[in-house]
Amino acid sequence: MMIPFLRALYLSEHGIGETKIDYAQLLQEIESSSTGAQIYALLKEAERLRSVPAFFFAALSRIYQACFMQNMVIRHETELLLRKFEANGIPVIPLKGTMLAERYFGHFAARGTSDIDLLVAPEHIQAALACVANAGYCTPLKENPEHYHLEWTKTSSGLPEPLPVELHWSLAPSGTSRMDMRTAWENSIRLDGYDNVRVWNATYTFYALCLHGASHLMDSAKYILDLLHLLVRHREGIDMEWIWNQARSDGTSRRVVAALACLYGHFPELRSVKPLPFEPRLRFWKPDAESGSIRRTIRKLTVMDSWRYRLGYLFRTVIPSEALARYSLDDAGSPRSLPALYYRLYKQRLRKLIRGA
Where does residue 194 fall: left (phi above 0), alpha (psi -120 to 50 degrees), or beta otherwise? Predict the structure, then answer.
């Protein structure tokens, strides 16, 4: 139901007025994908809030008000961190969050968020961590050795749950691409009022959102909505030829193809809105939020550009490093000996496989 609704909002001349919509089912999909704030903002922009059923309007209003309050706090916390980075001369690029909502969705509360993501060059990570700690983020979360970010939380931010801040140094895990983050910095511009805070143009923002959605296997409507919104509302600022050439250089072309295969597959009308310099199609690629670990692993392999990356990923999955094995254990208390560690890890995997996890 979400796809016909989005098509009516973005691509139909008649809007939602002539589209048959099951609003109860649509609300379930909106709640499961955490897209209520975007939908509310889009309906408000189109002056259609009063044309939807009362229960749907009431539910969206509650979602939007909660998002407004949460995003207002996160926006304040983001600005606090950016000022600290600026004062310490640390170059930083805000990723997604309230900055993305303001720049591309029109309002800081027009897109829900629950954390703060910042891109920092590797050589500035330690200085950035000092700024984060100085801002009150004092609880580091357990570090996943495969991730390309560090995460700390703050418990006194005015939110009911601890607020995480993630310091990224890349947009892709090491060993799965040849992504050179110098291009990300070279394609950033200075944010007004700052010397060290940078932002991306629409082209690189769209590229980053493709990589982000593909990393999650496009398993939620929120990734589709982000890409659809930028492509329709900011298409003149998006250079697809540049994205395609950069993705091939970075070894992330199949990630871009996967994200756009999902988007253009749902909305074939986009071919006339924004033609692509490549065919958005991948074999064995079909987003499925309900798939088990084996199918998700196959899809992760599908979006890698070469067998070198795929074989490396498989090797790390089958025989993970000691650090990754200890991180992956669900049970509290990690065994001291390596044989006991891997025995518990494989036992846990077999149990999940049998349960279909």
Answer: beta
Q: Cα–Cα distance between 252 and 204 in angstroms, integer?
A: 13
Distance of CA 355 to the CA centre of its chain: 28
How far apart are the C-alpha atoms of 90 and 142, rounded to whole Å? 25
Per DSSP, the three-state class of 270 is helix
Q: Contact, 266 vs 246, CB < 8 A?
A: no
Give the whole-angstrom CA distance, residue 180 versus residue 135: 30
The whole-model pTM stands at: 0.90
Task: Measure the CA–CA gap between 304 and 308, rounded to whole angstroms.
Answer: 9
Contact status, residue 59 vs residue 26, Cβ threshold 8 Å: no
Q: Does residue 331 lie within any of the structural domains?
A: yes
CA distance 329 to 231: 40
Cα–Cα nearest to 338, from 350, 355, 348, 326: 326
Q: What values do phi and psi take at 114, rounded to 5?
A: -130, 0
Which helix (H) or strand (E) element contains residue 188?
strand 188-190
The vertex-103 CA angle with 83 and 40, nearest 5°, equals 120
Residue-number span of the structural domain to which 341 is assigned? 320-357
Q: Average pLDDT across each block of 10 residues of the chain; the chain has 357 residues. List them in order.
A: 90 71 93 95 90 94 96 95 97 96 95 95 94 88 75 82 92 90 94 96 97 92 96 96 97 96 94 92 67 75 91 87 79 76 83 68
Quick check: is 109 in a domain? no
Q: What angle do CA 342, 320, 150 make, to 5 degrees?
A: 115
Rounded Cα distance between 34 and 16, Å, is 21
Cα 40 versus chain centre, distance: 20
Domains in the chain: how many in total?
1
Residue 217 belongs to a domain? no
Whether 286 maps to a domain, the answer reads no
Please give the DSSP secondary-structure letter assigned to residue 14: S
